Amino acid sequence: MDQPVRPGAPRPTAPGRRERKKLATRTAVREAALRLAVRHGVENVTVEQIAAEADVAERTFFNHFATKEEAIVAAAAAGAEALVAEFRARPPAEPVLRAIREAVLVVMDRTDAAGRDHLTALRLIRDTPSLVPRQMAVLTAQEESLATAIAERTTRGGMYPLLCAAAALAALRVVLGRWLDHTAGGADAPPLDVLRAEVDEALSQLADGLGP
């Protein structure tokens, strides 16, 4: 999703052909890993199978991912990056927690392939303990990126950006877990109005301590 360019900010350059090809290959491997993990279970999938499913060499797989777990969780990592990107695109004067709320709803309401894969990865991680270490690495990177973005849009320094990012993302993990529980019974997609209500409740409680 394109982000607005703020006045005075350098205009982002479009990726070249080589970078587009690398991104397409990485996406194909990521999608193949997730597809096979859902179909056969994480423990029953090998790097060799993922490479074959994506129609790439095993060496190419390792050019993009260190382990099969990293590849399987990559859709969740892409969702985390999208959330931070959406936060950065919010109006500069918007309060931090409001901007986080709007960014979450935009990312979780996506109906394209990336959005569907994001939800699938979140469900798979929830049900697969072996993926938790990779998820924690994703969450740590997301927290650092969000804290940096918060620091760029507020005059409050010190620990505030880190504390705000950590607290908000912890609350969102709780909310997303509860939201995904609505898929019990085979529902294809949880209702967004439930997520919206629970995000509002969680962030309003945080606002009492974190301030505007």
Structure, described:
By secondary structure, this protein is mainly alpha-helical. Helix content is 71%, strand content 0%. It has helices spanning 17-40, 47-54, 58-64, 68-89, 96-108, 113-127, 132-153, 160-180, 192-210. The longest helix is centred in the first third of the chain and has 24 residues, at 17-40.
Number of helical segments with 4 or more residues? 9
How many β-strand stretches? Answer: 0
Q: How would you characterize the largest beta sheet?
A: none
> Structural class, please?
mainly alpha
Outline, from the CA principal axes?
Answer: globular
The CATH superfamily of the domain at 68-210 appears as Tetracycline Repressor, domain 2
Q: What is the terminal separation in angstroms?
A: 28 Å
The residue fraction in helices comes out at over 70%
Please give a quick description of this structure.
By secondary structure, this protein is an all-alpha fold. The chain has a domain at 68-210: Tetracycline Repressor, domain 2 (Orthogonal Bundle). It has helices at 17-40, 47-54, 58-64, 68-89, 96-108, 113-127, 132-153, 160-180, 192-210.
Question: How would the blueprint of this fold be written?
Answer:
Elements: H1 17-40, H2 47-54, H3 58-64, H4 68-89, H5 96-108, H6 113-127, H7 132-153, H8 160-180, H9 192-210
Helix pairs in contact: 1-2, 1-4, 1-6, 4-5, 4-6, 4-7, 5-9, 7-8, 8-9
